[in-house]
Amino acid sequence: MKRIFQLPTTATAPFCPSEVQGTIPVSARLPAWRKFLLFVGPGLLVSVGYMDPGNWATDIEAGSKYGSSLLFVVLFSSLAAIVLQCLSVKLGVVTGKDLAQMCRAQYSRPVNYALWILAELAIVATDIAEVLGGALAFHLLLGCSLSAGIGITALDTLIVLGLKGKGFRQVEAIVLGLVATIGICYLYELMMVGPDWKTVALGFIPDIRRIQNVEPLYLAIGIVGATVMPHNLYLHSSIVQTRKIDSIHDGKRMALKWATLDTVISLSLAFFINAAILILSASAFHRYGQTVTEIDTAYHLLEPLVGGMASFLFAIALLASGQSSTFTGTIAGQILFEGFMDIKIPCWQRRLITRALALIPAWIGVLILGEGSTGRLLVMTQVVLSLQLPFAIFPLVQFTSHKKLMGPFKNGFVLEWTSWVLFALISGANLWLVVQFLFLTH
Question: Is 339 part of a structural domain of the chain?
C-alpha cells in the first residue's frame, strides 16, 4: 500500500463534461435561501439511483409476499444511505477529490484495480436494471416484445449526445422533472388503492425475525443493494464539487451545511417513493393474496383493482425511473473510469461501452429465462450491488475518519462508529446470505 493518508495534489476532478467543476459560484454574502437553492441538485441526481427499476422489483416482490413487514428494511436502508452520502459530500467538499481519485492516490495499484473492477461491475449491474426497466416500460406502453424494448433502450446514448455542452443545472432540471413524474404517479396510485395505514406504521418497527429465513433475507439484501448504491458514493463526491466556494474553512463549512441539507431532503424524497412502491404492492396485491414477482404482472393486476389510469401512470413512472437513472449512471461511469484509471474518454463513448455491457447479459437473461423473468433478473442485479457495497463503504469511512486528510472536518466519534457499524451490518448480512445459500445447496 502507498503512503496512506497523504493528501494528493490538486487536479481537475473528472466529470462528464469534465469542465463543470466549480462552475456554479456560491457567495457567502448571499441570503440563506439563495445559498440553499444554489446547492440543490447533486443530492437530487444521487437520489434517482435510489428509485430506479431495481428498487421497483425488490419493493414490489417484498410487498406482495410479505405485506408491509419489510418496510423497516426500506427505512434502515434510507437512513444508511443518508449517512453514507453525507460522508461522500464531506470527502468531496473538504479534499476537492472524489472517492475514486482518493483510492487511486492512497492505495497500491493492485488494490486500486480490484476496487475499480468491483465498482465497474456495480455500474454494469445498475445499467442492466435500467435496461430491463426501460424495456419493460416500452413493452407495456407500446406493446412491443421485451427483446425489442431492450433494443430501444440502446438509443438512450442519443440522449447523452444531445446533452453535450449543456450546463449542469440543465441536467439537474431534467432529472427534477423525471423525479417529480415518479412522485406524482405514485401519490395518485396510493390515493386510489387506500392502504391500511395502521399496518403500514407497524411495518416500520424493526423485527429481525421477519428476515430470519433465506427468501425474505434475500429480498431484504436486495432492498439494501437497491437503496444504498455503491456507485452513488463515487458520484456524489464528484458532483458536489460543481459548486464554487472559498477554499478556507468557513467556505467549506458553508458548503457542507447546504450540501448536506440537499442530500437529506433528496434522499428523504427517495425514501417516500420507495416506501410508496412497497405499500402499493402490499395494499394492491398482498391484501388479496396475490404474489407478484414481475413488474409487468403488477401493471396488469393494477388495472382491474384500481383502474386503467393507475396502471398507465405505473408504466410512465417506470419509464421516467429508467431514464433518470441513465443520466446518473453515465456520469458515475465516467467518474469511475477517470478517477481510478486516470484516463479521459468522451462521455458518449463511456455511455456506449456501459450500455453495450448491459445489453448483452440482459438479452441473454431474457432469452434463457423468458420474457417473464425481468423481476428475478432485477432483484439479482440489486443483490450484486449489495455484495459490492462494502468495498465502496470501507475506503469512504476510512478516508473521512482520518485527521491528515480531513483536518478539522474529520468524522466525530459518533459518526465514525455509526459508519463502521453500517459497514459491519451490511457486510454481515451479505455473508449470512452466502452461508445460507451454501447451507441449502449442501
Answer: yes
d(CA 182, CA 321): 7
The range of the structural domain enclosing residue 267 comes to 30-441
Q: What is the count of structural domains for the chain?
A: 1
Q: Pick the closest to residue 223 from 212, 211, 232 (CA basis).
A: 211
What letter does residue 29 receive in the DSSP assignment?
T
CATH of the domain at 143: 1.20.1740.10
How many other CB atoms sit within 10 Å of the CB of residue 101? 25
Distance CA 371, CA 379 (A): 15
Could you tell me the maximum CA-CA distance found in the chain, to the nearest angstrom? 66
Q: How far apart are CA 172 and CA 261, in angstroms?
A: 17
Averaged pLDDT, groups of 10, the chain, 442 residues long: 44 43 66 81 80 74 86 88 92 90 91 89 77 79 77 64 56 74 79 84 86 76 70 86 74 87 90 87 82 72 66 76 69 81 71 68 68 66 74 93 90 92 81 60 45
Assess if residue 21 is contained within a domain.
no
Position 10 scores a pLDDT of 37
Nearest to 232 by CA among 341, 118, 389: 389
- Sign of the C-alpha dihedral, residues 388, 390, 394, 396? positive
Report pLDDT for 375: 64
Let me know if residue 19 belongs to a domain.
no
pLDDT of amino acid 111: 92
In a domain, 24, yes or no: no
Question: Residue 403: what residue type?
Answer: K
Give residue for cell 441449502.
Answer: 440
3-state secondary structure of 244: strand
